[in-house]
Amino acid sequence: MSGINPCITCGACCAYFRVSFYWAEADDGGGVVPSALTEQVTPLLRAMRGTNQKSPRCVALAGTPGGATRCTIYSQRPSPCREFACSGEGDQVNEACDRARARYGLPPLKCHPLVTEGAREPSTRVQLAVDKYRP
Question: Which superkingdom heads the taxonomic lineage of this protein's source (predicted)?
Fold first, then answer.
């Protein structure tokens, strides 16, 4: 299997879940998430635009789930996106990842090593330099 992050060809979670987070993560609250791409959910919560609806799809997702995808604000993404692990990462099953993938007809991910640029040994961390592999 390739050392490329499987999320680059998936994007299912970005088009399946509501991405809500504390309002101060947005740039107008001192954070880095572009506030223009968010909407208020409650006085303390925001969501990425497009994810707070019946058929969610994050406004920052480019591409088609199951094909070549990418996050257009990857380095500025909110905490739920930073913390979401693909199934198989760290030899752990993430049922939420598996559900999102199933919605798009994708099989569950198997555990496999992902190589981080400059690393001496394989790593199962998904937090790698995705930008390097963007189309």
Answer: Bacteria
Token pair belonging to 82: 């930073």
Asked whether 59 and 66 are in contact (CB, 8 A), the reply is no
pLDDT tens series, the chain, 135 aa? 456 677 777 999 999 999 999 999 999 999 999 999 999 999 999 999 999 999 999 999 999 998 889 999 999 999 999 999 888 887 788 999 999 999 999 998 875 554 444 433 333 333 333 333 333
Q: Where are the alpha helices (DSSP H) in the chain?
A: 79-83, 95-103
Q: Which two tokens stand for residue 10?
A: 């998936």
Closest CA to 79 of 54, 46, 117, 102: 46
